[in-house]
Structures are given as structure tokens and as C-alpha cells.
Design goal:
The chain is of the alpha+beta class. It has a single domain, classed as 4-Layer Sandwich (Glutamine Phosphoribosylpyrophosphate, subunit 1, domain 1). Helices cover 24% and strands 33% of the residues. It has seven helices and 13 strands. It has a seven-stranded antiparallel beta sheet. It is globular and about 40 Å long. The chain starts with a strand and ends with a strand.
Length: 245
């Protein structure tokens, strides 16, 4: 499992989302409250953020636990961004702990994360799903994890003109036609974000011109609401909608 979050709104210091919030990503990675599998997320992390006006995200990834990386403190305190996607990783059984496996995965203007697992990934399902990815998107896959292949499938659907919510729903359908799993997907292009609640916890908050979705609330703000399972959320800084998968 993993913990992940995404933010859209006025520029915010990364440290506000990662360290300063009472249950920010650093804290919930080490002390999750809603995690189904595992008791912490020690297998590295990744942060993608968009500089104001930039079409493509910047990214930092490491196999160091997010709570133990001293370099993250410097990055988090100096970077301000209107769009952020962060993830802390607990590697799925059988998957190597290497930086190529750490979300966010990025391509062009998109950043993506999986909080979950594709059951049977190492027993043939991974090969089957990867064969569905187009040669163009498949050539960019660096590692062996399920999340990166699901991103490739998402990109193919986006390339074909699917809106973000439909692309994520299509990936869930493709996986569930072959196997079971927990498929909380998170996608942003820096202006809009879409996320699925599918087997794992997901919470959302929208107020004061900012939207935030996360595996767990980062604070006790009553504006947080739990996203029902098998739901896809689409958010901008000023609007949020939910629809069944």
C-alpha cells in the first residue's frame, strides 16, 4: 500500500502538506490511520510539483523513507507550488525497492500515483496488462511495478481523447476484467485532478479556492469528507464532483 495526496489552489509551501499539517504526508506515511495493509510506508517516496505557469511538473523521488530524508526538508521548505502530488510507498510483495517504482510517475504535463495493488501482478497479470499498453507509452516504462503500467494505460486513454475521470475508470475496468485488486488512482495535469476510491481510503476537501484529496485527512478540518468506495472524484481549485465508477 501507499499514502498519497494531491493539492490544487493558491501556491503553497510543500512543507505545509508534507510536514507542518498535523497528519501531513510524512506523518501519515509513518503512522497511517486508515491503511488496510502494512503499518507504515518505509519504501521511499516521490513528490511532483508544478512551478507557476509551467506545463510540466518537476519531481523528486527517493528510496529513503519520507520521514528520514534530510534533503526533503530543504526542498519542502523552499518550494511553493499551486499544484502538488505526493506519495509515500510500501512496496507490494515481490516488487523491488528502487526509485523507478516510486510514484509519482510523470509524462508530459501529467503526474500519476497508485495507492493499491494489482493481484497476481507477478503471476502473469502484469505481463498481460503491460501488453495492452501502446508501444509509444510502453517504451517510457522504466521499472516493473503495477503503478507505472497503469499510468501507461491511463495515458493511452487520454491520448484517445478520454477525460481524466473516464481514463481512470477505464483502467479500473481493464484491471478488474482480469483480476482483483485495490485501485486508488490519482492523476493531475496541474490544473485538474481526478482520483478513484477503489478498495482503499480516500478523503477530499474543497474550500477557499483550494482542493485537496488524500488517502487520509491531513488535519481535523470539518470540511473533509470520505469519498465512497467505487467513486471517481474530479476537482479543480473551485469545484469538485463525484461519480460512481
Amino acid at each position: 500500500m501507499c499514502r498519497h495526496l494531491a493539492y490544487l489552489g493558491p501556491p503553497i509551501a510543500l512543507t505545509e502538506l508534507l510536514r507542518d499539517a498535523p497528519h501531513g504526508l510524512v506523518h501519515q506515511a509513518q503512522h497511517p490511520l486508515h491503511q488496510i495493509s502494512g503499518t507504515a510506508n518505509p519504501d521511499g517516496y516521490g513528490i511532483a510539483w508544478y512551478d507557476a505557469g509551467a506545463a510540466e511538473p518537476r519531481r523528486r523521488r527517493s528510496t529513503t523513507p519520507i520521514w528520514a530524508d534530510p534533503e526533503l526538508t530543504t526542498v519542502a521548505s523552499t518550494v511553493r507550488s499551486p499544484a502538488v502530488l505526493g506519495a509515500a510507498r510500501l512496496a507490494s510483495p515481490g516488487s523491488p525497492v528502487e526509485v523507478s517504482g516510486n510514484a509519482p510517475f510523470i509524462a508530459g504535463r501529467f503526474a500519476f500515483s497508485l495507492n493499491g495493488i494489482v493481484d497476481g501482478w507477478h503471476d502473469g497479470i502484469g505481463t498481460e496488462l503491460r501488453q495492452l499498453v501502446s508501444p509509444r507509452r510502453g517504451a517510457a516504462i522504466d521499472g516493473v511495478t503495477d503503478g507505472e503500467t497503469l499510468f501507461g494505460l491511463t495515458l493511452d486513454l487520454l491520448d484517445d481523447g478520454a477525460p481524466p475521470a473516464d481514463a481512470l475508470a477505464g483502467v479500473v475496468t481493464a484491471v478488474e476484467a482480469r483480476t482483483t485488486g485495490r485501485l486508488n488512482l490519482l492523476l493531475t495535469d496541474g490544473a485538474t485532478m481526478a482520483a478513484t476510491a477503489c478498495g482503499n481510503s480516500l478523503f477530499a476537501r474543497q474550500r477557499d479556492g483550494a482542493a485537496l484529496v488524500a488517502s487520509e485527512p491531513v488535519d481535523a478540518d470539518p470540511a473533509w469528507s470520505r469519498v465512497p468506495d467505487r467513486t471517481v472524484v474530479v476537482a479543480t481549485p473551485t469545484a469538485m464532483t463525484e461519480a460512481p465508477l
